[in-house]
Design goal:
It is built from 18 helices and 14 strands. The chain is an alpha/beta fold. The N and C termini lie far apart (65 Å). The protein is globular. Strands 3-2-1-4-14 form a five-stranded parallel β-sheet, with helices on both faces. A five-stranded parallel β-sheet has the order 5-13-6-7-8. Strands 9, 10, 11 and 12 form a four-stranded antiparallel β-sheet that branches. Helix 4 packs across helix 8, helix 6 runs antiparallel to helix 8 and helix 9 packs parallel to helix 18. The structure holds flavin-adenine dinucleotide (FAD) and iron/sulfur cluster (SF4).
Length: 442
């Protein structure tokens, strides 16, 4: 029996996909900030990939200096609001808070962060200005967290910035990939508008860069280029039945869900294949859309899943059932999907092995493949002297994010193979400073 009723309108959709971390009110923020011990060696700060001065911004909230708190956050992380909401804080800043050692709930750092950043986003308070004009232009490919962060930082350094974006909206997977119960489209766009209004970079939408000619044009028109293209569509399973009607890629499924909301169609019985965070989001999303039965199938044991425990727990609380040690053999059906045939697996001498004769079929009307995203190899192969590693990730200098073609810098999922928004934010800022250093010295 489904936990959620199918949402028929926007109101019902919002109810099913209610925000997991709602905005704090003044009293909550005042109380929560008063709990901070302002540790001198603040482990919460070390645990943040962007190194936000957590005790400082909490102190600023505590003393009523909310604008100052927001400035402290944005000084380190241009995606300050999005990260407060969607970062896996339990394994980052909040997971490192000293209260965890005393059996006391850690500070709600992410929600305090949102309290401060939403306050300036809503008031439109100008915290940043473009730097003195250097007369130089930088092109950015991709308006995801990495590209936007790079643009913001470059503008403060006085560069003209043009971002070429394939889609019609900024923020990349923040609006197209992250589950809707973590952050709403409105909240993502409010931060995007806030940053662009202050810093004035240009975004050329619906403009994918895909040919050698376009790249050559960028190389002659700009002093440097930042690659922030992320990853591609869901990777193929290379399995019989993959092209049947009703088989979807998880990233494409979530993107459609984020755009269509209650108009999104869902089947009665859904099988999600995969064990990462994207699989959890797809399974949770299917359940919240009102699917009767959602099975999350993973070929190894539960403990081997790549997903965070809290993401799995969230999916289970939405009514998702886990099926472990089940490896998919084929997707069965006529024109449309009718089921997935699995074989049971076990570990033999540390090697995952199929158990002969244990095949079984889970009937379903929809399959969501959450087996990773393909890389952007075809675009990257057009760039001269760009070194990629064995996993098709762009190789960069870790201090500057400069690639092996000195004119190109890169960041985000395109260099780490798929991480979090906060990593893209860090990379974009680092690369902007790398670009500045390189242009200044040449
Ligand atoms: C389903 C899913 C759920 C996730 N949930 C979370 C979460 O809860 N919390 C979290 O922190 N992270 C989450 N992530 C990861 C996070 O979204 C990414 O790590 C982050 O968005 C990477 O940023 P990026 O800028 O490198 O790439 P992207 O966000 O992918 O942005 C790349 C941008 O480049 C554009 N682009 C691509 N190719 C071209 C081209 N040729 N020309 C022009 N533009 C181009 C794309 O349209 C896109 O806008 C999730 C990812 C997925 C897939
Ligand atoms: S570790 Fe916890 S108590 Fe210490 S500074 Fe950070 S948030 Fe405050």
């Amino acid at each position: 029996m489904a936990e959620y009723k199918r949402p028929d309108n926007e109101q019902e959709f919002k109810e099913n996909f209610k925000q997991k971390k709602p905005l704090m009110n003044d009293t909550q923020a005042h109380y929560e900030s008063s709990r901070c011990l302002f540790c001198y060696d603040a482990p919460c700060m070390d645990a943040c990939p962007t190194g936000i001065d957590v005790p400082l911004f909490i102190k600023q909230i505590q003393t009523g200096n909310t604008d100052g708190a927001a400035k402290t956050i944005y000084d380190s992380n241009w995606m300050g609001n999005a990260c407060g909401t969607i970062c896996p804080t339990g394994v980052l800043c909040e997971g490192a808070c000293v209260y965890n050692h005393q059996d006391v709930a850690p500070l709600l750092i992410g929600r305090l962060q949102n309290y401060a950043t939403m306050s300036v986003i809503e008031s439109g308070k100008q915290l940043y200005y473009p730097g003195e004009d250097t007369g130089k232009k930088v092109a950015i490919i991709g308006a995801g967290p990495a590209g936007i962060s790079c643009a913001c930082e470059l503008r403060t350094l006085g560069y003209t910035v043009d971002i070429y974006e394939a889609k019609s909206q900024p923020s990349g997977l923040t609006v197209h990939g992250v589950a809707p119960y973590k952050i709403s489209n409105e909240e993502v766009m409010a931060e995007m508008d806030y940053l662009q209004n202050q810093l004035g970079y240009n975004i050329i939408y619906n403009h994918p860069i895909s040919t050698k000619e376009e790249l050559t044009k960028l190389e002659t028109g700009y002093s440097a280029i930042f690659i922030g293209v992320g990853l591609g569509i869901t990777a193929p399973l290379n399995m019989t039945g993959e092209n049947l009607k009703g088989v979807h890629g998880a990233v494409e499924f979530i993107e459609e869900l984020r755009m269509k909301h209650s108009e999104m169609k869902i089947a009665q019985r859904v099988v999600v294949i995969g064990g990462g965070n994207t699989a959890m989001d797809a399974a949770s999303g299917s359940a919240r859309l009102g699917a009767e039965e959602v099975t999350l199938a993973y070929r190894r044991g539960k403990e081997s899943m790549g997903a965070y425990d809290f993401e799995y727990d969230l999916a289970v609380s939405a009514g998702v059932k886990g099926l472990f040690n089940a490896s998919p053999l084929e997707i069965v059906g006529g024109e449309s999907v009718e089921g997935v045939r699995f074989v049971k697996t076990e570990l033999v001498n540390g090697k995952l092995t199929n158990i002969d004769g244990s095949e079984f079929t889970v009937p379903c009307d929809m399959v969501i493949k959450a087996t990773g995203q393909a890389k952007q190899g075809s675009l990257l192969s057009l760039i001269d002297k760009l070194t990629l590693d064995e996993k098709t990730r762009i190789v960069v200098n870790a201090d500057t994010n400069q690639t092996t073609n000195p004119m190109y810098f890169a960041g985000g999922d395109a260099i780490n193979g798929g991480a979090e928004v906060v990593n893209g934010a860090y990379d974009g800022k680092l690369a902007a400073n790398g670009i500045h250093q390189w242009i200044t010295q040449n």
